[in-house]
């Protein structure tokens, strides 16, 4: 929000939290039910930090820096220790296509058939113009039956969509699922065209692959903005997707060295921070073990946990002091009042001194005039 208008900051700080609370109310009720089963008190807001150990799958560099309390621990990026390897077909395709773009929009989200058709046309245009020599597309949620029967290129050529889906094009490889991390790790994968989900973003950062991001929903627009601000990505709009815009941005990602440099800079942060997932596991183990000593038994013999007691080593005092005392508003308010009193007193004293000097001067002037008149007479 650093460079945003008052309106956007108001929406972000006030309206959006209310929307999120409404959208996720069922999830919150489910979590509270599970908490009650193990004797843990309820929470009322997903953003509540005061009495909740909050583990974040992120890291500064990708995440915007913020002053988080000790109870909020970054443990990301969380990446598996092992990944599926490339199939023989994909290995052969990548090894013979030194300028490959990988396209994937995750396993949950999907965009419109019109946008898919535009992306498919763009892939062919990039190959025909020799900007890329290969494209791999993991379609996952895309419904191929909704695509147009043919794709019309700017050269006037007409290509049957069925031929593309059956991998009859020598430079386009389409599959339902693909080993994404293995593809991104390959030296011939130059650009990742994705939706900006957090897992995909972390994998792209970890492999230093510049991204073209088409955010669709949830955290994806925010991730796209972070990636663009970090200098390793460019973003698109799902409401105004155009072939020429996609091509021009891919050309920039391929030709401007800054995108690869910034991706490598973030890669350093991701590789070191990825070790913190073990810290996250340790924190959970710590809480489970401390609960045995900080719990009490109810009348049914079941353990009940007081979160504020369990997490007392990490909960900052300001969370217990209330809004005014915790933010030192009472102290700052008193300081302002004292300053105003001092300034008013000094001002009043200065005013009285000026008035005293003025009266003395006036009296002296009158006496001088009276003396002059008497002398003249």
TrEMBL record:
| Entry keywords, A to Z | Glycosyltransferase, Membrane, Transferase, Transmembrane, Transmembrane helix
- UniProt-listed InterPro entries: UDP-glycosyltransferase, UDP_glucos_trans
Q: Which residues cross the membrane?
A: 328-351
- Which Pfam family is an annotated match for this chain, by its short name? UDPGT
Q: Which domain of life is it from?
A: Eukaryota
Q: Which SUPFAM superfamilies match?
A: UDP-Glycosyltransferase/glycogen phosphorylase
**One example GO MF annotation:** UDP-glycosyltransferase activity
Q: What is this protein called?
A: Glycosyltransferase Family 1 protein
């Amino acid at each position: 929000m650093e460079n945003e208008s008052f309106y956007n900051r108001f929406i972000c700080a006030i309206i959006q939290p209310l929307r999120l609370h409404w959208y996720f109310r069922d999830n919150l009720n489910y979590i509270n039910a599970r908490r009650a089963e193990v004797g843990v008190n309820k929470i009322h807001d997903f953003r509540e930090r005061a009495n909740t150990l909050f583990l974040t799958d992120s890291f500064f560099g990708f995440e915007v820096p913020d002053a988080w309390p000790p109870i909020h621990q970054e443990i990301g990026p969380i990446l598996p220790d092992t990944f599926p390897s490339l199939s023989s077909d994909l290995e052969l395709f990548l090894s013979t296509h030194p300028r490959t773009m990988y396209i994937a929009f995750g396993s949950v989200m999907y965009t419109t058939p019109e946008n898919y058709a535009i992306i498919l046309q763009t892939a062919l245009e990039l190959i025909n113009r020799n900007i890329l020599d290969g494209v791999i597309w993991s379609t996952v949620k895309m419904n191929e039956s909704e695509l147009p029967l043919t794709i019309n290129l700017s050269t006037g050529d007409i290509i049957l969509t069925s031929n593309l889906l059956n991998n009859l094009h020598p430079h386009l490889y389409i599959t339902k699922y693909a080993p994404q991390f293995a593809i991104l790790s390959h030296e011939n994968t130059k650009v990742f065209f994705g939706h900006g989900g957090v897992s995909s973003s972390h994998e792209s950062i970890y492999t230093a692959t510049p991204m073209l991001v088409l955010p669709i929903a949830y955290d994806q627009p925010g991730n796209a903005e972070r990636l663009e601000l970090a200098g390793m990505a460019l973003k698109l709009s799902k409401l105004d997707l155009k072939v020429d815009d996609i091509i021009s941005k891919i050309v920039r990602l391929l030709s401007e060295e800054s995108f690869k440099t910034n991706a490598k800079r973030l890669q350093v942060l991701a590789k070191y921070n990825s070790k913190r997932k073990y810290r996250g596991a340790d924190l959970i183990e710590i809480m489970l073990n401390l609960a045995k000593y900080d719990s009490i038994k109810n009348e049914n013999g079941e353990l009940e946990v007081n979160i504020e007691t369990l997490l007392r080593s990490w909960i900052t005092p300001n969370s217990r002091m209330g809004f005014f005392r915790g933010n030192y508003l009472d102290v700052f308010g008193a300081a302002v009042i004292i300053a105003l009193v001092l300034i008013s007193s000094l001002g009043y004293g200065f005013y009285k001194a000026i008035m005293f000097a003025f009266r003395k001067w006036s009296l002296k002037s009158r006496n001088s005039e009276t003396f002059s008149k008497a002398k003249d007479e």
